[in-house]
Write a structure and sequence with these properties.
Blueprint lengths: L4 E4 H6 L1 H9 L4 E5 L2 E6 L10 H8 L7 H10 L2 H5 L5
Parallel strand pairs: 1-2
Antiparallel strand pairs: 2-3
Length: 88
Amino acid sequence: MTAPDEITQRDLRGRSGEIMDAVEHGEAFIVTRNGTPIGELIPLRRRRTVTREQFAAMSANAPVIDADRFRADLDSITDTELSDPYAR
């Protein structure tokens, strides 16, 4: 993921159609006024399908989970702790 491009308030005003098209296609922008960042334009998250290959690539560095240890951890949590996250 790359850092958003910076655009000036004047650029946004003058090139709004072009910039909104870019946002619609997944680009993000930091809007500046007098050199100071004042806002961020980001695309809305939309449902999208992730292929098996994409999921495998994203998961390649995920830690391995020991199923027995995970189950034991879950079993050690009381019903009160499950319903009240501040009970611990």
